[in-house]
Structures are given as structure tokens and as C-alpha cells.
Design goal:
RT_dom; Reverse transcriptase domain-containing protein; 2 domains; two-stranded antiparallel sheet; 142 residues; single chain; 3 helices
């Protein structure tokens, strides 16, 4: 079913200037767009989001705009923030987004991901340490 979504033509692709593609895993879908300028990026992303939205409508699936997140991955300073629209609603750009268990940060860093992973590991270690005997650690029973 989702194979058709991966095959739809992205109308905003301009060779060497901008491109867009759909990446999917199970029911998580990401539209990834690139552009040399903010205007090209906006055009590529917005036309691609429109194509995905039309495909969703055609297949009787609903798209939750409130759950949709956008992030601009760049190391540039002083750029004009692009405006992305989905079903006539402007998507707010986030500082970091979690996709398939990985925290993606706007400046291409992994500090937030490492902080989340460390917190999760600490919670797991704390839970396991409470289960172990107080003296001598875990033991194998015969």
C-alpha cells in the first residue's frame, strides 16, 4: 500500500538545484527536500507535501497536520527560515525532532540524542539495580 507513496513523482525536483524524496518505515513517513536557496527549498518541499497530501486523500487515509513536524537541517548562520505548508496550514519549524528513535537537531549535532539515550540508560540501570540483591550482586541459582 505504502509502496505507491514511495513511487509518486515529486514535482519540485530541479536537477542540480533542488530535490525532494519520500522516506518511509512502517507507518512513519518523512519528506526530505533540499534546495540551494530558501525559495527553491520552499517550492520543492511545499509541492512535495501537496503531492503526499493528495495521495493520502486518494487512498482514503487521513493526515494529522497537528502531529506533523518540520525541521531545517543546516549549519548555516543567518539564513531566511523557509515556510512549509501542509493542507493550507503553516508547519512550525522545530529545534529538534525525534524520527525512528533518533533525535535530529537543527544544527546537525547529536547532543540531544545522546542526552535522551543517557537518561534512558540511567533509568534502566536504576531499575535493574533495585532488582538485584543488596550483597554480592546477581547470582546464578543451582
Amino acid at each position: 500500500m505504502y509502496d505507491d507513496l514511495l513511487r509518486i513523482a515529486m514535482p519540485g525536483n530541479i536537477q542540480g538545484m533542488s530535490s525532494a524524496s519520500v522516506i518511509a518505515f512502517a507507518d512513519d513517513v518523512a519528506v526530505v527536500a533540499t534546495g540551494h536557496t530558501t525559495a527553491l527549498l520552499e517550492e520543492s518541499m511545499n509541492t512535495s507535501l501537496d503531492a503526499v497530501s493528495r495521495w493520502m486523500s486518494k487512498t482514503s487515509l487521513t493526515l494529522s497536520v497537528s502531529k506533523t513536524k518540520a525541521i531545517m537541517l543546516t549549519t548555516k548562520r543567518g539564513y531566511t527560515q523557509p515556510r512549509f505548508y501542509l493542507e493550507d496550514e503553516m508547519l512550525q519549524l522545530k529545534e529538534h525532532v525525534r524520527y525512528l528513535g533518533v533525535e535530529l537537531c537543527r544544527v546537525l549535532g547529536f547532543r540531544k540524542h545522546l542526552e535522551c539515550a543517557a537518561a534512558k540508560a540511567t533509568t534502566t540501570i536504576t531499575s535493574l539495580s533495585r532488582l538485584m540483591p543488596n550483597i554480592g550482586g546477581p547470582r546464578q541459582k543451582k
